[in-house]
Amino acid sequence: MSETDQTQRGESKTLAISNAMVRLHKTQFGRGPTRSRAYFAGSDVLVCVLEDVLLPAEEKLIEMGTEEDFVTTVEQLLDRKVRSFVSALDAKQNVIFEVFMFDASPNGDGDQ
Prior knowledge:
112 residues, alpha+beta, 2 domains, 4 strands
């Protein structure tokens, strides 16, 4: 299989995953995100980015918490503006993921 075929196959799989996440959110919560993308972050990590997905009760919970220290620390170290931050816990495996999404870089490719 050529590199182009592998890339297209990978893109179709991430598109299928992205679409499946939207369907699952709609089924489980009554509404889905307005925008969804899935990316591989290396060979062992898949990140699904779902936007405009929170329910009103979840929005209220966010108002009560803060992520400012995490965001400020990363912004200062990378000299980039954080657009979105999420802290996720897999309690069963005892793993926490701190994920930062940045505003577009000046060169547009996300590299530093």
